[in-house]
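Hi R.,

As promised on Friday, here is the backbone we talked about, encoded as structure tokens. Could you run it through your design pipeline when you get a chance and send me back a sequence?
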């Protein structure tokens, strides 16, 4: 059995995208996540109309997955063999607050199903899975801080029990004033050992 390794990783933070530690794209002219995701979409040109219906954190996760998988041959795996294991600290708090604004005033009550549907963080995993036709295991953990051990242990467990063969792991977080996406592709074809030490090291490369 091959040992799991990290084949590729990407980081989106401070209006910049890094792939394997190298700058891919930067837009310092925009301010805030919403205009930045539009700028990244224009740069990547994924041609995916449903993107514009997503909430901002799902857009962030979607774009990070586009970057991560851009040169990964996912066709080498069955759909059910690819798992997505993500985490963050704020769940969907920004979307939750937007939904709350639509229901808190009885005299101006206008709840939107299109907003409400994104008030669960695992919807982001669903959007990525639909886009790339993945049908494997998935989990989304809410933790106070980035926890490489949690993600690593869960991925290793799925691999050792033969439930999955390749993985997207990482951290997609959005608060009122900040955002970050850190994703990595785990398979048997990389050069970086898949362990918590290495994942923490890669995560800290972009600060």
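Update: got your reply. Pasting your designed sequence below so it's all in one thread:
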């Amino acid at each position: 059995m091959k040992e799991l390794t990290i084949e590729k990783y990407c980081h989106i933070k401070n209006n910049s995208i890094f792939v394997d530690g190298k700058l891919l794209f930067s837009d310092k002219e925009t301010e805030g996540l919403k205009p930045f995701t539009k700028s990244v979409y224009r740069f990547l040109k994924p041609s995916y109309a449903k993107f514009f219906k997503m909430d901002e954190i799902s857009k962030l996760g979607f774009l990070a997955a586009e970057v991560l998988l851009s040169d990964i041959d996912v066709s080498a795996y069955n759909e059910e063999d690819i798992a997505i294991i993500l985490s963050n600290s704020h769940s969907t708090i920004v979307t939750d607050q937007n939904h709350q604004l639509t229901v808190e005033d009885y005299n101006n009550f206008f709840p939107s199903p299109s907003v409400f549907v994104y008030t669960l963080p695992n919807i982001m995993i669903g959007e990525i899975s639909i886009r790339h036709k993945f049908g494997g295991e998935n989990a989304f953990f809410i933790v106070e801080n980035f926890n490489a051990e949690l993600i690593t242990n869960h991925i290793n467990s799925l691999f050792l029990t033969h439930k999955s063969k390749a993985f997207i792991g990482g951290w997609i977080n959005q608060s009122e004033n900040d955002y970050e996406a850190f994703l990595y592709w785990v398979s048997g074809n990389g050069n970086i050992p898949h362990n918590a030490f290495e994942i923490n090291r890669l995560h800290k490369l972009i600060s």
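One thing I noticed while checking it: The beta strands are 5-13, 16-19, 22-26, 82-88, 138-142, 166-174, 179-187, 192-193.

Thanks again,
M.
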